[in-house]
Write a structure and sequence with these properties.
By secondary structure, this protein is of the alpha/beta class. The protein is built from 15 helices and 10 strands. The chain has an 8-stranded parallel beta barrel with strand order 1-2-3-4-5-6-7-8, surrounded by 9 helices. α1 runs antiparallel to α11, α5 runs parallel beside α6 and α7 packs parallel to α8. The mean pLDDT is about 95. It binds 3-methyl-2-oxobutanoic acid and zinc ion. Zinc ion binds next to loops.
Length: about 400
């Protein structure tokens, strides 16, 4: 059987760090239930030590969700880790995700710590967390910009302390696909105990490459967990988008050869829910969940799709939760699409002469009006002046 790719959703934690996207406890709970319906493997529900509100939200999600592992984020200190463990108490399956920065820039300018101090703190944090839960993820923040020798030293040590997942963040979205994939592969090859942990990728979208980088981390680097968010929500330009990575791995199973636990039919509902909750509009041409993702406007494409959908569709709209694909009637549309719409609207027009005449009127109207609605077509064919 093919390897499984673990989908770790962080909409409720990293997604919420997007300016203006903060959510109430009830909103988070509602989204968590939708993520469970989607059969996401791990839900990062929040950062319990960051506020009492977030603690309560994580605790509520831990108490309500049964099918997905619930994860809480913590810095690499005992207080944060204890708060996370406390919030996760009611979970059927729980994970603590602890992190500390390892890049020279972050250690020196932000943490004001030496590499040796960071090394010790990372080890102690994982040891402390492992005494509280069996499932511990460690992230070297700004990992991609870290010195590879130092990173190997830290990651080997935290695996020895019992970290079960090693996540390598491209915190500032600086990576490019081949380099990021090779970086993960180098770490896995150089760390002697690397096969004791699941390797995970966490990419930000500052250069628009979060999904591509994550896929390279999987394909080239051998990572088996991807951290992502619905609609790619997240800090600055966002995180790797769940719908895109899931559908890339599913649609190109011939290339990736990986199994997914996701029920993709709930993707569109999840996207809508996150968009409505945060007020962040999804662009129409967004892959998979944008309003135009399965819409066809040109006559040649419409004709092709009406004859065989796979001429211009690489996925089924229904497989991600749309009720159907969409034929948009406008000035570029062809006669075939127009005829099909007449049938769908219950307009019985048998004679080719009548259809041609109606189609000519439709084209005239379409030159003046950018989108033609069903009402326009009904008006056009029922117009006394033109009827026979
Ligand atoms: O981007 C990042 O580095 C993070 C870590 C906390 C995992 O979100
Ligand atoms: Zn992040």
């Amino acid at each position: 059987m093919a390897d499984k790719l673990i989908i770790f959703d962080t909409t409720l934690r990293d997604g919420e760090q997007s300016p203006g996207a903060s959510m109430t406890k009830d909103e988070k709970l509602r989204i968590a239930r939708q993520l469970e319906r989607l059969r996401v493997d791990v839900i990062e529900a929040g950062f319990p030590a960051s506020s009492n509100g977030d603690f309560d939200a994580v605790a509520a999600i831990a108490g309500a969700i049964r099918e997905s592992t619930i994860c809480g984020l913590s810095r690499a200190n005992d207080r944060d880790i204890s708060r996370a463990a406390e919030a996760l108490k009611g979970a059927a399956s729980s994970r603590i995700h602890t992190f500390i920065a390892t890049s020279p820039l972050h250690m020196e300018k932000k943490l004001r710590m030496t590499p040796d101090e960071v090394f010790e703190q990372a080890k102690l944090a994982v040891r402390f967390a492992r005494n509280l839960v069996g499932d511990v993820e460690f992230s070297p923040e700004d990992g991609y910009r870290s010195d590879v020798d130092f990173l190997c030293r830290v990651l080997e040590a935290v695996i020895n302390e019992g970290a079960t997942t090693i996540n390598v963040p491209d915190t500032v979205g600086y990576a490019v696909p081949e380099l990021y994939g090779n970086f993960i592969r180098t770490l896995r090859e150089r760390i002697p105990n690397s096969d004791k942990a699941v390797w995970s990728v966490h990419c930000h979208n500052d250069l628009g490459m979060a999904v591509a980088n994550s896929l390279a981390g999987v394909k080239i680097g051998g990572a088996r967990q991807v951290e992502c968010t619905i609609n790619g929500l997240g800090e600055r330009a966002g995180n790797c988008s769940l719908e895109e990575i899931v559908m890339a791995v599913k649609t190109r199973k011939d290339y990736y050869g990986l199994e997914l636990g996701i029920d993709t039919r709930h993707i569109v509902a999840a996207s809508r829910m996150v968009s409505q909750t945060t007020g962040f509009v999804v662009q129409p041409n967004k892959a998979v969940v944008g309003a135009n993702a399965f819409a066809h406007a040109s006559g040649i494409h419409q004709d092709g799709v009406l004859k065989a959908r796979d001429t211009y569709e690489i996925m089924r709209a229904e497989d991600v939760g749309w009720s159907a694909n969409k034929i948009v009637l406008g000035k570029l549309s062809g006669r075939n699409a127009f005829k099909q719409r007449l049938q769908e609207l219950g307009v019985a027009m048998e004679s080719e002469v009548d259809i041609n005449a109606a189609f000519a009127r439709f084209k005239e109207l379409a030159d003046r009006k950018s989108e033609i609605f069903d009402e326009d077509i009904l008006a056009l064919v029922s117009d006394e002046e033109h009827s026979h």
